[in-house]
Design brief:
CATH superfamily: nmb1532 protein domain like
CATH topology: Four Helix Bundle (Hemerythrin (Met), subunit A)
Number of domains: 1
Order of helices and strands: HHHHH
CATH architecture: Up-down Bundle
Structural class: mainly alpha
Bound molecules: fe (ii) ion
Oligomer: single chain
Helix content: over 70%
Length: 170
């Protein structure tokens, strides 16, 4: 493959796990923020979540789709749908509002639960299915996709068009 899949590329599973911790820290910051900071902190967390979810759906999940991972992947896609719906709602709301606080709490809890599911069920299965070289190749491809989405600006705005049903699993 191309340069982005060279040896120093990051293993996809390691990269996604590190991003989970990063996003959890960002959501914690939003929760602890004051009214003045909340909007921009939430926008940054929503961008990060959107880029992560989209790179999983477009690149990682299709690449690790096997009979034994299918149930976990389909459940994950439904969890992504739920996260996208919550994000789309929250992006329309006033972050200083009480209703925002309640819905944000649900987003934070569901995100943490989803990360736990991926790390405890899906990722261990992936480590058995594909080798390190392919994981690095996927890590490079996902990072490139995330950077592309970031360059387009405000990736979070895309979730509102993806709330009708779960993404397909090719
Ligand atoms: Fe993830
Ligand atoms: Fe995910």
């Amino acid at each position: 493959m191309s340069d982005q899949t060279s040896n120093n590329a990051t293993d996809a599973v390691e990269m996604l796990t590190a991003q989970h911790r990063e996003m959890e820290a960002m959501l914690k910051q939003v929760k602890e923020s004051d009214d003045a900071q909340r909007k921009s902190l939430f926008a940054a967390a929503a961008d990060k979540l959107t880029m992560h979810i989209k790179s999983e759906e477009e690149i990682f999940y299709p690449a690790v789709h096997r009979a034994r991972t299918e149930d976990d992947l389909l459940e994950s896609l439904e969890e992504h749908l739920s996260l996208k719906r919550l994000l789309a709602d929250l992006l329309e709301m006033d972050p200083a509002d009480k209703a925002f606080e309640a819905k944000f709490k649900v987003l934070k809890e569901q995100t943490e639960h989803h990360h736990e599911e991926e790390e405890e069920k899906l990722f261990p299965a992936v480590l058995k299915i594909i080798g390190e070289d392919q994981r690095k190749e996927l890590g490079g491809q996902m990072l490139a996709r995330q950077e592309e989405l970031a360059m387009q600006g405000k990736p979070r705005t895309e979730v509102k068009d993806e709330t009708a049903s779960a993404a397909p699993l090719p």
